[in-house]
Amino acid sequence: RQAPAEKGEKPMPSRERVEAFIARVVSGAHDLAIEEFYTPDATMQENQNPPRIGRDTLVAQERAVMGRASRIVTHPVETWLIDGDRVVINWVFEFEFPDGRGFRMEELALQRWEGDRIAEERFFYDPGQRVLK
Questions:
Q1: What average pLDDT score do residues 2-13 get?
Q2: Angle at the Cα of 85 (from 84 to 86), degrees rounded to 5?
Q3: Four-point Cα dihedral 32, 37, 39, 41, nearest 10
Q4: Could you tell me how far CA 79 lies from the centroid of its own chain?
Q5: Angle CA(101)–CA(131)–CA(28) in degrees, nearest 5?
Q6: Dist CA 2 CA 97 (whole Å)
Q7: What is the pLDDT of residues 29-78, one digit of tens each?
Q8: Are strands 117-124 and 38-46 parallel, antiparallel or unpaired?
Q9: Rounded CA gap, 132 and 110, in Å?
Q10: pLDDT in tens, 47-57
Q11: DSSP code, position 36
């Protein structure tokens, strides 16, 4: 864990911690990444949709998505940045479903970290990418 922030300073994640999070997701363990790297009361929001609240809810939702797909590939991350307690990651995923159809999706995740855990995450992507082909 990181040392506590000085008074008035926001605690921020280390580069190593963010790299560990990215590696966990790229390994395909999306649900376990949420369990390991999110605060208990974390929120996750897709574009303009209302946020989902609570790590347990986020893990359950991720497992439901993983259960519907026959294969999910997370491409190695090429672009990400840290600015204080904010992290932005450019994710690229490929989803394949049991009927053989699928789609490729690119998104930006804007995260607010509290020390070494994600407290808020919002995804920005074009929903048109989610058309099965």
A1: 64
A2: 90
A3: -40
A4: 14
A5: 65
A6: 40
A7: 999 999 999 999 999 999 999 999 999 999 999 999 999 999 999 999 99
A8: parallel
A9: 26
A10: 999 999 999 99
A11: H
